[in-house]
Design goal:
By secondary structure, the protein is of the alpha/beta class. It is built from 11 helices and 11 strands. The strands form 3 sheets. Strands 3, 4, 5, 6, 9, 10 and 11 form a 7-stranded mixed sheet that branches. A two-stranded antiparallel sheet has the order 1-2. A two-stranded parallel ribbon has the order 7-8.
């Protein structure tokens, strides 16, 4: 079976637009040409890829499966072209970095500064978000490397740990919890919290820590999808939160204090993760090596 990347690109456009006419217009092709392309794919796979829905179209289950594979193939093809071009240019390549919030504040500026040292013409694009959200972008080839929480047990990626990240309960220095004679997990439940969204790994770990002690989860008064908001939020309120200890060392952290309790202390690794099967450009390889060789020192110096 011969598959053409052009046919898959046309198929993607039709799937995204949900309308053959609109997809043909977007592609600057005639609708009959687009329809013929879809027919070739359907003949190749022996199954319909679309079904009618009102005036538009929607994917069949086979079409839904093909859409995911088509995106991966297109990203791979684009990456091959980009990598060969960058290899021909030496270090004058483009690197796409995904970064978790802690790494973005604490490590990424220094790494980028080193990467550009000596007049290197490397260009860098950065996407900041929760590490667990960026992992799919890494697997799909949308980013070259991920700086953030290391990934364990994933056969498609390789993680290189750099530094330990410790997540702790914190509050404003004036919070009444610090007047408590003995701070326990039960005592912490007497106060409202500002926490990340339930799907974020640190929140899952905290809820489980209380559950393992037979306790109810914290009472959440403010919930945020952006972890970066939490330190500023608790600095102005009497809310408890669960943040990286590194955050307390950043500007603004002087208004916060750690609520020291081993049972609510999460220790995890920050590092750099790459695709196991991916071939990094020279520019991306250089950044990975900088992180592996100097990342711990850079983090300690921040």
């Amino acid at each position: 079976m011969d598959l053409h990347l052009r046919d898959l690109r046309y198929f993607e456009a039709a799937a995204e637009m949900g309308h053959f006419g609109q997809a043909a217009e977007q592609l600057a092709r005639s609708q009959p040409a687009l329809t013929k392309c879809i027919q070739r794919l359907e003949e190749a796979f022996g199954s319909p890829l679309f079904e009618r829905e009102g005036r538009g179209i929607r994917l069949t289950p086979v079409g839904q499966m093909l859409l995911g594979r088509a995106r991966m193939l297109r990203n791979t093809a684009e990456e091959v072209v980009r990598q060969v071009q960058e290899f021909a240019q030496g270090l004058a390549g483009h690197v796409r970095i995904g970064s978790g919030p802690v790494a973005a504040d604490h490590l990424l500026p220094e790494v980028c500064s080193l990467a550009l040292e000596g007049g290197h013409k490397t260009t860098i694009s950065i996407v900041v978000g929760p590490s667990w959200e960026l992992r799919e972008q890494l697997r799909e080839g949308k980013i070259d490397l991920l700086i953030g929480l290391t990934i364990d047990g994933d056969p498609t990626t390789i993680s290189y740990p750099i530094v330990e990240d410790v997540v702790v309960v914190a509050a404003s220095r004036s919070h009444p919890v610090f007047a408590t004679p003995k701070i326990t997990m039960q005592a912490l439940l007497a106060y409202p919290w500002a926490l990340p969204a339930p799907a974020i790994p640190s929140r899952l770990w905290l809820d489980m820590a209380f559950a393992n002690q037979g306790l109810a989860p914290p009472s959440v008064q403010i919930e945020a999808s952006s972890i970066a908001l939490l330190p500023r939020m608790i600095a102005r309120t009497h809310l408890l939160s669960f943040v990286s200890r590194h955050t307390l060392e950043l500007p603004g952290g002087e208004h916060l204090e750690e609520v020291r309790l081993e049972a609510t202390t999460l220790r995890r690794k920050l590092g750099v993760t790459v695709r196991r099967a991916g071939e990094l450009s020279p520019a991306a390889q250089r950044i990975v090596e900088l992180l592996r060789s100097q990342g711990a020192a850079l983090a300690a110096a921040c």
